[in-house]
Specification:
The complex is a heterodimer of chains A (186) and B (265). Chain A has 186 residues and is an all-alpha fold. Helices cover 91% and strands 0% of the residues of chain A. The chains are: A mainly alpha (186), B mainly alpha (265). Chains A and B meet through helix 1 and helix 2 of A and helix 2, helix 3, helix 4 and helix 6 of B.
Chain lengths: 186, 265
């Protein structure tokens, strides 16, 4: 490199690569000025604008995504709240059903007791009536028997114990026979 | 247009590349400040190509990018994020973004013409453009510093705080030379010399190939395979150098601006 330059310097005094010609500077300046102005005025503002737009678009998308997430979260919250409500309501319904069931059982128990009481009362009344009827018929029969016994007693002397007992035995035998007779008649 | 092998085919002898290639004869407006030669024409062409490409790439921009738009956005995003905002922060990065973007795109595109067949000469291969861009960077960082610290920029640059005063006798000249002279000079020369060297290498390889293949003939033709392989490799290398130099130039400009902005401490 160095030798080349040296040789060049020896060959021609006019050629010196470090001393610019005027036209060299002029055209350099013209070309660079055009390029500089072109980038300054046109290209860089255009690119900057598009980059800003892109940044905005990305930010917009991020905002949109945030919004969507917020909505989803709100919906989830709502669902959770509804679910809790539904659970509470179900619990309430179950509770009231249980109470209703208890009430029904109690009522049934009550009515059964009443029925039992009624039945018992009726039965007792019936028994009482039957007893009354028995008492009435017994009284009639006892009356007859008493009259029969009395007439028998009056017909015999009551002084003698043996007699008396014989009378009674006869009466009972008569009674027995009359009964068997009536049973035989039947 | 085939200036790659200008001398090898003329008289049969082998001529290496020469610096004259960087000063081709003008064909328009000769002798005026607007003289156009081959390299100036390449620069104008590159400028038009840049305008057309970026116009097409940003013509119908959509929020969801298509392929072409993605490439343009990726390139501009690289400059914005990796150079401007990394070094200068969001606010100052945005302020100086147009300058840095135009700088990077210009240098990359002008560098690439060095390997475009038919053009074969980097737009940055003559000192005018590197020097101009270095001066722009120079003005930019001085402007940034003076605007931010109107009273103290030059004082802090030349008399760094916290240094015992007798040392200023040494420090101040060093600071002056490194900040206000070496910075633009190195910026311009680094780019220029890379491009000149790249061009020289390519010309050397391909003119040697041509010489071995067509002029020397016989068994020498075999050498052409080697020289062509080197030429191919250096073409790929130039592609890399073109991007790297643009990155370095733009990055250093951003660094100088950043230093000027943060001069206080």
């Amino acid at each position: 490199m160095h030798s080349l330059l040296l040789r060049a310097a020896e060959e021609g005094e006019t050629v010196n690569p470090f001393i610019p010609e005027l036209y060299d500077i002029v055209w350099s300046a013209v070309c660079f000025a055009i390029i500089l102005v072109f980038f300054w005025v046109k290209i860089l503002p255009t690119v900057k604008k598009i980059l800003d737009e892109r940044a905005e678009a990305i930010e917009g998308n991020i905002a949109k995504a945030d919004e969507a997430q917020r909505q989803a979260e709100a919906a989830l919250e709502q669902y959770t709240a509804q679910l809790a409500d539904a659970r509470a309501e179900a619990g309430k319904i179950r509770e009231s059903a249980r109470e209703d069931g208890k009430k029904i059982v109690a009522e049934a128990k009550d009515s059964a007791t009443v029925e039992a009481t009624r039945i018992t009362t009726t039965a007792q009344a019936q028994i009482e009536a039957e007893r009354q009827a028995a008492v009435v018929s017994l009284r009639t029969e006892v009356g007859t028997l008493a009259i029969d016994l009395a007439s028998g007693v009056i017909g015999e002397s009551l002084a003698d114990d043996t007699k008396a007992s014989a009378v009674v035995d006869r009466f009972l035998a008569d009674l027995e026979s009359s009964e068997s007779a009536s049973a035989g008649k039947k | 247009m085939n200036l790659l092998v200008p001398s090898a085919t003329d008289d049969g002898g082998f001529h290496g590349p020469s610096l004259d290639e960087f000063f081709p004869p003008g064909f328009l407006f000769e002798g005026t400040p607007f003289e156009i030669n081959r390299i100036m024409a390449i620069r104008i062409l590159v400028t038009i190509v840049i305008l057309v490409l970026f116009w097409l790439g940003t013509r119908k921009m959509t929020v969801v990018p298509r392929r072409g738009q993605s490439i343009v956005e990726m390139l501009l995003g690289f400059i914005r994020v990796n150079i401007a905002e990394d070094l200068l922060g969001k606010k100052d990065g945005t302020r100086f973004l147009p300058l840095l973007t135009a700088m990077f795109i210009t240098i990359v595109a002008m560098n690439f013409t060095g390997i475009v067949p038919g053009l074969n000469m980097a737009g940055t291969g003559v000192i005018g453009l590197p020097l101009l861009l270095a001066l722009v960077a120079y003005v930019a960082f001085i402007y940034a510093g003076v605007k931010k610290h109107p009273a103290s920029f030059f004082k802090n640059s030349l008399f760094p705080p916290g240094v015992p005063w007798p040392i200023y006798a040494v420090v101040t000249p060093i600071e002056f030379i490194s900040t206000f002279i070496l910075r633009p000079v190195t910026l311009a020369l680094r780019l220029l010399m890379n491009m000149i060297a790249g061009h020289m290498l390519l010309v050397l390889c391909f003119s040697a190939t041509s010489f071995f293949l067509f002029t020397a003939g016989g068994w020498y033709s075999l050498f052409s395979v080697g020289t062509f392989a080197f030429g191919f490799a250096f073409t790929i290398f130039e592609l890399f150098v073109g991007v790297l130099q643009a990155y370095v130039f733009t990055l250093l400009t951003a660094v100088y601006i950043q230093l000027a902005l943060a001069e206080e401490h």
